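Anyone able to model this chain together with uridine-5'-diphosphate?
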Amino acid sequence: MGVCPSARMAMLRDNFTGLLRLWDRPDVLTCTSWGAPIIWDGTFDPAVAQQEALQQNLTIGLTVFAVGRYLEKYLARFLETAEQHFMVGQRVVYYVFTELPAAVPRVALGPGRGLRVERVVRERRWQDVSMQRMRTLHEALHGRLGREAHFVFCMDVDQHFRSSFGPEALAESVAQLHAWHYHRPRWLLPYERDARSAAAVAPGEGDFYYHAAVFGGSVAALRGLTGHCARALQRDRERGLEARWHDESHLNKFFWLHKPAKVLSPEFCWSPDIGWRAEIRRPRLLWAPKEYALVRD
Ligand code: UDP
Ligand code: MN
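re: yes, here you go
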């Protein structure tokens, strides 16, 4: 499989053992057609990424929405495991968006890590809670979050960290390969196909199918992403349309038009329901079982 020129340069600069790592994963695709690295376990040196991030003195934001029953069901474990695994050693600020700030669990935070709670109104339909995230994030990125963070990851709450999710994942814009779709041929990917929708991806278009449970990037890039998606969602709503996978459909359209600078392998957000796969060495986030009857109205 191809080795990314950008990744090769970084490895050459770092050290020779780093260079050897590039051939550690001949079993998987490690570079996109536009030259972005697809990072798999073994293709990066976490210590080098950690050092580079420390030199830049970064603040990394992590946003998560916990509205309705998602709060009591998932938020505590998400935050507790993030304390163990998310950007450990870096300055981190969590942004929790909820309609019930008083119910946010008190999680002990490590040094250099803070948590802010932002109140949102509770949309009636779960689809609207999910879609409204783009507008809320867009506003937050133009407010305090945008001022205090350099890079931000935006995540679903119905998952927990299992192993290190560190600065190797940082880039100008970052997309997550969807665990259920990464090995499927392009024509089978569940893009929005209704040409009237702003999220429409025509047959023959699309690179990968990305998962909206994890995306990230610089504040500037994410302002662009969330603004695009919020406007596209609004346009569809005005026309009485709703894309097949809601905000995720629009995110996929955005990343088709604006290629991500880095792609995370499905190891970064894995569904245990898929079962064992040889190429999944070290899952970093694990999906919670889908208990829709419990959490959705
Ligand atoms: N969410 C929420 N309350 C809701 C619906 C959604 O807090 O009633 C948030 C939560 O962070 C959740 C995300 O929106 O993880 C996306 O929804 P969900 O995880 O149900 O979508 P799926 O991953 O099943 O597509
Ligand atoms: Mn989810």
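The longest strand covers residues 210-218.
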